[in-house]
Predict the 3D structure of the following.
Amino acid sequence: MIEMFRQLLVSAVVFGFVFCAVRYFLDRATFSCRANRMFDSCSLHLFWQRVMDADYIYHKIYNICANLCVDCILYSTWEVLRACRDKWILLENDRLYFSLFQGEGCRTVPLSGHVGFDSLPDQLVNKSVNHGFCFNILCVGETGLGKSTLMDTLFNTKFEGDPASHSQPGVQLKSSTYDLQESNVNLKLTIVSTVGFGDQINKEDSYKPIVEFIDAQFEAYLQEELKIKRVLHNYHDTRIHACLYFIAPTGHSLKSLDLVTMKKLDSKVNIIPIIAKSDAISKSELTKFKIKITSELVSNGVQIYQFPTDDESVAEINGTMNAHLPFAVIGSTEELKIGNKMMKARQYPWGTVQVENEAHCDFVKLREMLIRVNMEDLREQTHTRHYELYRRCKLEEMGFKDTDPDSKPFSLQETYEAKRNEFLGELQKKEEAMRQMFVQRVKEKEAELKEAEKELHEKFDRLKKLHQDEKKKLEDKKKSLDDEVNAFKQRKTAAELLQSQAQQAGGSQTLKRDKERKN
Amino acid sequence: APGQRLLCWEEVGKGQFLSRGTPGPEPVAPMGSSMEAPAMLEELPPGAAPGKGAHELFGYVGIEAVLDQMRVKTMKTGFEFNIMVVGQSGLGKSTMVNTLFKSKVSRKASQPGQEERIPKTVQLQSVTHVIEEKGVKMKLTVTDTPGFGDQINNENCWDPIIKYINEQYERYLREEILITRKRKIPDTRVHGCVYFVPPTGHWLRPLDLEFMRRLSKIVNVVPVIAKADTLTLEERAEFKQRIQQDLKAHAISVYPQEDFDEDPDDRLLNNVIREKIPFAVVGADQEHQVNGRRVTPGCTLTWVGALPTATSPQPALSCLAVENPMHCEFPMLRDLLIRSHLQDLKDITHNVHYESYRVRRLNESNRVALSPANGLPGKDEDDSNL
């Protein structure tokens, strides 16, 4: 009995040892390949390719075997393979850096004198300085967390803007561009701020305007890139390079709104979470809060921006800073006299908080990381990772493919032709539909008009008839009147005749009388 | 006391502010070098700005550090430069390239022992080398064109060259249009083409004119007078004048092109260069001794100098030092190509020549797709929907 137990124990130990050795070997193999730059021709490369393909098959098998007692063994192997696969994906991206200086027929030749191309970085830098830089920051956070104040403090200037109210109906983004200049460097800084974030009663759709905004910037750049006549080197880049996510200083954990928003944003932009108004948290609470936040982010799979540690000159400082994330910052533009210096601080009845004091808050760390050490890296990550991802998704959505199922590359022309024909076909169909509708409407209108015309005709006829009747009546009346007049005239002439006869008789009498008088 | 929280900045206490008022030691290193950054953070006195003393306190944000970040990044990724040399055989092209880059980078150096035979058609051969100087790595590709202008009938001898240049543009375009593109697209486009004009001393030949006319539209052309040690200074000046007149008469715009001057400073500098174009160069890559001093590179020529006298019976040897600006204009060419305008060459190739190729290429595919029945206009609008 004890014998069997001992044997079991020994086999378990041996198995554990073998397992650890295998995992260690796989780790080292992946790294040593990179160190030896054998990756191109390494068969490990093909191996990982197969692993990637076999990934989902493996997952299936895993699911089946999960019910069996070999559960935990498979899980560990799965984890190992998954970790190695992640590393492989990262290395795949960097592969080109090494293959640039490798390749067929390429050898290093020693120089026998000073040629002068070591001034090349300077030439490049001078050109960039002439051209100017641009940097875009997005500040996401609830109203009243001090976003504008922090921007003012970070860049040592007062950016105009009034504080927003709490009664916004929805989340909006306010963007403003400033031209800063320091010695000979011109920086076009764009600060985008959320207005009304977290103020609504129903916050389900709060993240949507932000995601749409970021996508719109990518879309604008993509459109410019796809144009035939494009002006990329003079293009004002509006893509968001860094997103500062302001976390409210509750001291407990992340709010669910924060989690949801960060999850949606992490594949689109470099997220740097910061704890705002951190003078409300005590030191011990702060460490606990930071740990809680990082563990929540990790367990929810949110990928925040990690400062790069592959370049020796910045690896050390970036590494230490990565451990201090999220930064606890305080923003203030008021200057108070402390000791014999003026410095930015906040005055409370119980003391003064200095913004640029390392012991008080992490503001200096944030400024170092954001501006002085990693600005270029942030821009590069935005362009090479986030923008490329967006571009790939968008183009695939539109139906472009790189290779045929037979792995023959699609010719540029064919794709364009196909797309164009499709588009033209659609256009034609739309035109037809519109024409049909137009014709129909015209017919309807015509019918209406005809009816109206008929009505009018009828009316006209009626009126005419009325008119004629009236005319007739009037004529009759006129006739009767005329008759009367004639009759009257006759009588008048008759009367006049009589009168004149009477007069004549009378007149002759007067004549006689007159004659008699004369006589 | 209960109900009272200890805020993190209360521990310091009021009294301590006054004692910390004196600033810590100012770090001497310049702002940009981030290796000093950890030290600076610890010693950072409250509110003081580190680094160069010229900045006022409280006004310094640190935006200039982006220049250093950019420098570090470019030094890590390295540079690529592709140059093409065109000219008849025997004009000293390979020697010139070797002299320019002070190492054996030309075709002849890479393939020693091959018989020099004039090929029947123009062939293009590229050799790639990686050279490094003071931490800056450069991948240099030199494309040579043996057989150019060597046949009896030289019609269309520029066609293979134009085809090669367009092929490189095409390759880059294909990489750029892919859905999953590489992080850094390998750049094989020709950044500069050095054209060797034989030192006849009269005018540009029809072949030269034709070639430069065609090629200055698709690539940066830098004409140079080869084997300029056969011309005296006056002949050289006259030759240059005539060449410049010729170029102007035929509206050939060689590098640096006037249309792409960015600002008045650039224009001034480029005007100075334009007056000197084409440079008269001599290629020589052997070391010589002059008066006990090493002159590298240079070539020894036997000219009749002073007649041999009793004290010095041997005829005087003259040494033409290539680096001497009084002797030949090689330093100016080198400065133009490498020390001051290398990035400019690459930028103009990328922003101007490559873009015009792309416009032509995409318009071509449009025209093919449009059938005569449709004939719908609005290409830009269509493509922006793509």
In short: Residues 73 and 302 of chain A are 27 Å apart (CA to CA). The longest strand of chain A covers residues 172-182. The mean pLDDT of chain A is 81.
